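Contributing: when you submit paired examples, paste them exactly as shown. First protein:
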Amino acid sequence: MNYINQDFKTPGQLIQSLLSLRGWSQRALAIVLAMDETSVNRICADKRPVDAKLALALEEIFGTSANTFLDLQKSLDLAHARIVSVPDPARATRAHLYGDLPITEMIKRGWINAKDIRDPKVAEELMRFFVVNRLEDIEILPHAAKKTAVNEEATPTQLAWLYRVRSIASEMLVARYSPGALRSALGKLKLLMTAPEEARKVPRILIECGVRFVISESLSGSKIDGVCFWLDSRSPVVGISMRHDRIDNFWFVLRHELEHVLQEHGRESMMLDTDLKGERAGNGPNVPEEERIANIAAAEFCVPRVQMDAFVARKAPFFSERDLIGFSKILGVHPGIVAGQLQHRLNKYDRFRQHLAPIRSCIRPTAVVDGWGDVYPLEM
């Protein structure tokens, strides 16, 4: 008889079967194990658990693996636990919120007011931050996520950043949005591309067009470059992270987001732009149509394609410093902007890096900024 393959549910059932096979009584087993008979009775009745030491002793006596006894005991313990366990629906909610959200970083950034992640105030602060009345309604939770909230599936970290930008933008005072004014402003913006310091004029120009422009430092691992969305039918918002402090990246991302505004993208769902480089900054077959349109507009704004094609045709495969600087002067832009577009065109990102001038410090004094040590003062 192959007793090991029988459907034993508990270690006590298996021990009883082994005793029966040998014709032993529980008293005999107690003598062999050097235990009192009452203890053996409790083990056989599954009222006393089989531990590792006892499992090894039973293995010696019956030749049945100790693991068999322990596996049955583990299954029995789990079954008992399920019976007495009280379900806690909030546990899954806490797992998503405290496990997926960068709460420690949000506290450090001043987005939520708490001492640390264990502070009881965290739950209340998260509801305030995400503008909900119940924790389970926070958008990062699977059952609460609005599939139309962003144009692609966003991570909890990215959603936290988006909510912060939206909160800041909602408190800004700007002119009434005018598509015509924004199109006209593109010419003014183009004139600012000669030097990093000129970027300080960008926020005022966008405010006058009715565009709510927010610069918010990205959260760790979010890879967000920018976002375009609308607070209502007449209030476009452009948020950028400036996670790459380079003149070329700033102008490309800004113009990319402004094209989303001009095309009225983001009315139905936020246009979340992440990792805008390589293929994602181009117009390849895998790039969504709305992003392709914005990428083309941004690249054309930085360096017109016809002129870039001609420059590359004349100078390839060798591009000198003098060539780069001379071409930049012809275009009326900073050499770093040409360098950035040339890197993308050639897929060689180590070329002319010395021209990729930092720009963040130039624009921060005049822009609505949250991050890098500054906390934007939201009304509570």
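Second protein:
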Amino acid sequence: MSTDITVPQLPESVSDATIASWTKKQGDAVKRDEVLVELETDKVVLEVPAPADGVLEEILQEEGATVTADTVLGRVAEGASAAAGDAGKDDSSKDSAAPAEDQAAGTAKAEAADREDSQAGDEAARMGPAARKMIDEHGLEPAAIKGTGKGGRILKEDVQKHLDQAQESAPADKTPEPRSAEKEPEPSASTASAPSPAETAKEAGVKHEPGERPEKRVPMTRLRARIAERLLQATQQTAMLTTFNEVNMKPIMDLRARYKDQFEKTHSTRLGFMSFFVTAAAEALKRFPDINASIDGQDIVYHGYCDIGIAVSSERGLVVPILRDAETLSMAEIERQIRDFGARAQDGKISIEEMTGGTFTITNGGVFGSLLATPILNMPQSAILGMHAVQERPVAVNGEVVIRPMMYVALSYDHRIVDGKESVQFLVAIKNLLEDPARLLLDL
């Protein structure tokens, strides 16, 4: 009996999707609820699970195809065994006069093959496409890698950490060997994951002979095309301006150094800078409601809550999950949610609902070394806060020149809603709250 693998109902704002990758080849054994297909929309990556135990009998839609809800992607033959397992069972049943021990050996061979197929399915299900690609490229054993994702899922960072540890522990004249001396096969079209923009750019820069001018043309991913569309829309349809200031990070850094161990022990999460900025932004948004507003046609919508989006970089591009009611969250809750977003973004596991809405956005280019930049609005929001790298600089304090860890901050805003005076005062409020964290507790 065959069961169809179909595209699930897509979110209301998504009309179609592109097949990013198949995690199995035709003829492979599959387990019910194991991820078989990854679909890329212009916002998130959706996973399509196997509808039943059996064998992937047929693939009807190849990678790169555009599909809509209820499209049949392939079929699973329920209850069937993989080719290796069936071969073992057939061989053991061909000769009815075979000795009992030979029949038992054939049965054991088939069961072992089924166990291998099942184990391979389990391994594929517990890792994202990026992690799977790295594991294949380096010839690693998934069982040897500790997954830190939800449910023990292996993330790209886990694979990189495993490689780093192996390199550190290996002798200087010896590098870790792959699990097989034979050359690993290249990922097939049905198993390779969609390349990231960085991977695509790297591949485009292939070596060439002097005098040659090679080029490589690749289609934009759905997410990259959507990002381009949104950024262009923001620059063309808003009166966007940016104001700048700088923050002395020493008070926060001293506070963090003093309490980070106790904070982690108490709340089971690390204390970073983002929770300070989110808390300060939520407080400043309450004081300046125009910054927390948006334009809807001829109306201005004032939001009585602070849904703050946190820009997160992923292999497929930038995503902005939302911290709902950020003004009510503790710093520990903020840190936990942000770290969860960061981990799931790498596997494309953030849902559309988690990225829908938002009244204000914070983006941190400082993690990549950016010293100063102008962030672009996340429409229809009226403002976005840009954080940057912390750098020691000479500053004047009480008439003396001292060295302090300083961060430039930028606020881009829609001048149709926000006046210059309010934008400057808003950024100064954030600066004051961060430079004197006690104000956050005392509501000053």
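If you have annotations for the second protein, write them as plain sentences, like these:
Confidence is low (pLDDT under 50) at residues 84-104, 171-195.
The longest strand covers residues 400-414.
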